[in-house]
Design brief:
Blueprint lengths: L8 E4 L7 E5 L8 E8 L7 E9 L6 E4 L9 E8 L2 E2 L3 E4 L9 E6 L10 H7 L6 E4 L34 H12 L2 H9 L1 E4 L20 H4 L2 H15 L15 E5 L3 E5 L25 H13 L4 E6 L13 H9 L19 H13 L4 E5 L5 E6 L12 E5 L8 H5 L7 H11 L3 E5 L3 E8 L3 E9 L9 E10 L2 E6 L2
Parallel strand pairs: 1-11, 9-10, 10-11, 13-14, 14-15, 15-17
Antiparallel strand pairs: 1-2, 2-5, 3-4, 3-6, 6-7, 6-8, 9-19, 12-13, 16-17, 16-18, 19-20, 20-21, 21-22
Helix pairs in contact: 1-3, 2-5, 7-10
Bound molecules: fe (ii) ion.
Length: about 500
């Protein structure tokens, strides 16, 4: 039984020649602890590729990051740590492939609400030998109180209450929440098997986070929002295997991940730079931004410059339109319960890209200009969808500007959970209704939890939707619910299964 390494090991932000290795030592008191690491080409550590030592200090909550360089591209490595006479478990990781790569395959996930379910998906992802990495689109943690305020869904009664029990606000709160996640055996298995590449959604910070606050953040009660954001990023940078894209800016997440010339993955942050979410008519103000000027300049420049075979956008909040005024009450109920429209039912959801239409149009113009090799991967809404993205979704003659593949949540509640009806029963007619109202939504499943597998070769991107019947108990029973594909040069969805 490991006691020092009780929060597991992890790797992340792989490049062709390096990858971040992470662990934490559980020691009491203020003392610094020397942590030795080694990385090898074999599980027995007979072919050592690098070794070194880092200091775990109280200042960083006794977490450590090593960044061994000089590794070979597209290669599996094993790593482990030693401290205080103990040796950690052995982790497996992989460097990114070198230019000329013909195939990559990775998992796409988001929305892991600890008190809503077991992380069955992480476990199954960890068991797949052919993945290059796991792409996390945010809500790695939820900051919420175990009994949240009205408007947020409470957890399931499955003996997994949040620690701390209250909403995270202080640095110690966020650290404790990350520590709880890292003590979970399924998260540990995932991290020990694959490097993670992640961005953020609002729950790494506070519900409904934006540049100047969050839905339930009260500056009089909770202090300055900028201070809270700094604490959130500090805990996240300590507790995840992250290489800061800009060491001078601990809050920068957006970056380009170059995967073998086959895909450039643009990881964006649509939460902490955006203008405050507002209702119409203010919503339509042309100057409003979801990206913030600096990130937007970076994205537009780098996206246009990219000469990889595919451009992939790692996008934490849904980009396609899910708002339409003239829908039946039935469809409206499903849209309301899955938060795809405003809570009053009278307009678009101000929290997703629907709430930033002027800037989205600029993104669509860019997509149209670069037509044919763009794929948007999105999370956040806890349901599975595959969508042909249109600027005018109800004009069926218009060519799609791109395609969007939305993964369901790992555990966060979706339609059957919220309505408390049986799995794959009542929801079916609502799914049907949504697809009738929104012809651009080619696939829509509102009940299951799980993950996507994204499989890319030069000719096509294929996305597999893997689902579980339940997350209310630990199970490894998963099934392939659907498979969709887009061909290079033609932004149209093709159903494979
Ligand atoms: Fe979420």
């Amino acid at each position: 039984m490991n006691t020092i390494f009780s929060h597991g090991i992890a790797s992340g932000d792989p490049l062709m020649d390096r990858v971040i290795l992470w662990t934490r030592v559980s020691v009491s008191g203020e003392n610094d602890v020397e942590v030795k690491w080694e990385v090898a080409k074999d599980r027995d550590f007979s072919k050592i590729a690098g070794s070194g030592s880092v200091t775990a200090s109280r200042e960083h909550d006794h977490t450590v990051h090593a960044d061994p360089s000089g590794l070979e591209a597209g290669t599996v490595y094993y790593y482990r740590f030693r401290a205080e006479g103990e040796t950690s478990a052995t982790g497996r990781t992989k460097t990114l492939p070198k230019s000329g790569s013909k195939h990559i395959r990775f998992a796409q996930v988001s929305c892991a609400k600890y008190n809503a379910g077991f992380f069955n998906a992480y476990k199954r992802i960890s068991e797949q030998p052919d993945l290059d990495f796991i792409l996390h689109l945010g809500d790695y943690i939820y900051e919420a109180a175990n009994t949240p305020p009205a408007g947020q869904t409470p957890g399931a009664d499955i003996g997994r209450p949040f620690d701390p029990i209250h909403e995270c606000k202080t640095l110690e709160d966020y650290r404790t929440r990350y520590a709880q996640y890292h003590a979970d055996p399924d998260i540990q298995a995932m991290h020990a098997a694959l490097p993670i590449i992640s961005t953020v959604d609002d729950h790494e910070f506070a519900d409904g986070a934006w540049r100047g606050g969050g839905d339930v953040h009260d500056e009089n009660r909770d202090g300055a929002w900028s201070d809270r954001l700094a604490r959130c990023f500090q805990a996240r940078n300590e507790w995840l295997p992250i290489r800061l894209p800009d060491p001078q800016d601990p809050q920068r997440v957006y970056r380009k991940v170059e995967v073998g010339g086959l895909a450039d993955i643009f990881m964006i942050n649509t939460r902490t730079y955006r203008d405050r979410p507002v209702l119409p008519p203010e919503m339509y103000d042309k100057s409003r931004t979801a990206l913030g000027q600096k990130q937007k300049d970076w994205l537009f420049t780098e996206f246009e410059k990219s000469n990889s075979r595919w451009r992939v956008l790692g996008n934490p909040s849904v980009m396609s339109t899910t708002w339409r005024a003239d829908v039946s009450d039935e469809v409206k109920l499903a849209l309301l319960k899955t938060k795809l429209i405003a809570a009053d039912g009278l307009g678009p959801d101000y929290d997703q890209w629907d709430g930033y239409p002027a800037e989205r149009k600029q993104v669509f113009d860019l997509f149209r200009k670069l037509k044919g090799n763009i794929v948007v991967l999105s999370g956040d809404i806890h349901v599975s969808m595959a969508i042909e993205m249109h600027e005018h979704p109800f004009d069926i003659a218009e060519e799609p500007v791109s395609v969007e593949f939305i993964n369901t949540s790992l555990t966060s509640q979706n339609l059957d959970d919220k309505m408390k009806w049986g799995y794959r029963t009542e929801s079916l007619k609502y799914e049907h209704g949504i697809q009738e109202a929104f012809p651009h939504i080619k696939y829509c499943e509102l009940d299951s939890h799980g993950y996507n597998i994204v499989d890319i070769d030069p000719e096509r991107v294929r996305v597999e939707y893997w689902h579980f019947e339940t997350v209310l108990k630990r199970t490894d029973h998963e099934f392939l619910a659907s498979v969709w594909q887009v061909k290079h040069g033609n932004p149209a969805l093709i159903k494979i299964k």
